[in-house]
Amino acid sequence: MDKREFDNPFEDYSGETLLTSSGKLEESLASTLRKNIDNLLQNLHVGLADTDPGDYSVYSGTSGIAALYLHLANKLGDGRGAQYLQTALTYIKHPLNHLNGRRFSFVCGDAGPLALGAVIYSKLGQNDKTKDCINRLSAIYVTMYQDKSFPDEFLFGRVGYLFGLLFVQYHLGKDKIDNSLVARVSKEVLDSGRNLAQVDRSRAPLMYMWHEKYYLGAAHGLAGIFYMLMQVSDPSVQPIMTQLVKPCIDYMVTLQFPSGNCPSSLENMSSDKLVHWCHGAPGWIHTFVLAYKIFGDEVYLHAARRCADLIWKKGLLRKGYGICHGTTGNAYAFLVMFRITQDQKYLHRAWKFAEWCFDYGKHGCRTPDHPFSLFEGMAGTIYFLVDLLDPGNAKFPSYQLW
Ligand SMILES: [Zn+2]
């Protein structure tokens, strides 16, 4: 079978510094980055003219583009902040008037446009519209609660909705979302995991299924569910974290392959193939790093280092440059390692993956289904390059809040 990745042509870190004394990215590197960001933004602009405005998801549609422009407005001090914010508004307005109420999560459903809308309107000083978005976001809970078959995973499920609530709290303040709502959703996720773990006599105190499989990765599985739960700071949920979530992360550490990669599901324990954020080590690494930050156990940092070494070897993917199952999603693994360790080896690796993306489209990668989208395409690549300008504050888009 053809290899899923390209051989990594880059030398690993040899001690050079990429930062100025004040911790910023060295100016010649930053200038190269900005040039490449501008080039890709022009290509994105052309590409988006042909995309389907009916897809309003963060994952593959217009809300993802709004998320990118909000990021540009927040991060690029180039005098175009107001213009970026207006562009973000343009991309979020249509979704806000056409939500279909079929899906509820942030990345694939209505919580994404509503939470992004709240933040964008707030930045523009339109407080009534901000409130309206927040009310509609909170109201989703009623529909979700009535559907007991609702999954728990990130892309479509309860923790995907939970992320929408946390996103608004993070950007606009804790008081903007009722904390009891955050606690209720978190407890439902915990109850659901406890029930399944008991029924299945699981080795972990919480277990989850999606489409009849025990998925383990960030998109549909345990890594994403525990990551979202660990981002909840509500005091009523915190004690449960140590009691229930920590042993689950301990269990996940035991599942890591000798290669450093991580399995996509319990049904696929012999298949060490996928090195994607959605399935594999590039998603798990975020869970291990956050567990290390919260619980302080070196075992998690060690597991994360093993993920990062594997991603360095096998992370330049033939599937393309996106964040879900592409090279920049994998590069975020290095940025989170840099955040937690301050080790410039990881910044070097992130930089090399960025250099790979400077030759966007020239490696013969397969074209994703949504080539300009946030999760599969060019918008995600640009998002990453912008984050690399300020590596100490980089956050995996629509997933990481700390
Ligand atoms: Zn994917």
Automatic annotation (TrEMBL):
GO cellular component: plasma membrane
Transmembrane segments: none
Keywords: Metal-binding, Zinc
Protein name: LanC-like protein 2
Superkingdom of origin organism: Eukaryota
Family indicated by similarity: Belongs to the LanC-like protein family.
Keyword Zinc listed: yes
UniProt GO MF annotations: metal ion binding
GO BP, sorted A to Z: carbohydrate metabolic process; peptide modification
Binding-site list for Zn(2+): C278, C324, H325
SMART domains with a match to the protein in the record: LANC_like
InterPro entries per record: 6hp_glycosidase-like_sf, LANC-like, LanC-like_prot_euk
Pfam family, one: LANC_like
